Amino acid sequence: MKVFVLCFMVACSGYSHAQQICHSQLTKNTPDARYQANGSEIKDNQTNLIWQRCALGQTWSGTTCTGLEKTYTWENALQAAKQTGWRLPNIKELKSLVETACYDPAINSNMFKEVSSNSYWTSSTLAEDARNAWTVKFDDGIARYINKTDNAATRLVRNP
Q: Is the model's pLDDT at 1 over the cut of 80?
């Protein structure tokens, strides 16, 4: 029974603790050299954007993200970003973090730790239906739209 409970807790946590899977035949598009780490921030030298290393609700410990990420409705995510002096990325910006050679998670896992399988909000509204906004799931790197009243995680960005 104890083994079942432990496995159930790990499976339901939303975090990918298994080893990231990368295709050896594909060149990584987000190698470590692309980024410059500065404590709890990561500068993307290709896009010149500065990212929070951890999702909102988590804290950078110096080696990893600790705590549980918070989920927000789209409007609440926008407000949380405004209060911190950061902003929600647009869909193009958030998709720039997707590592196309890997999955579980599909992001540079050396730079961005403890990435959950939750959807992450963007500031981009779906053109066909303003009740929805674009998100990215980093388990597979695919962009999806969801209703703005649903909850999703938030990774914030700023310009230098």
A: no
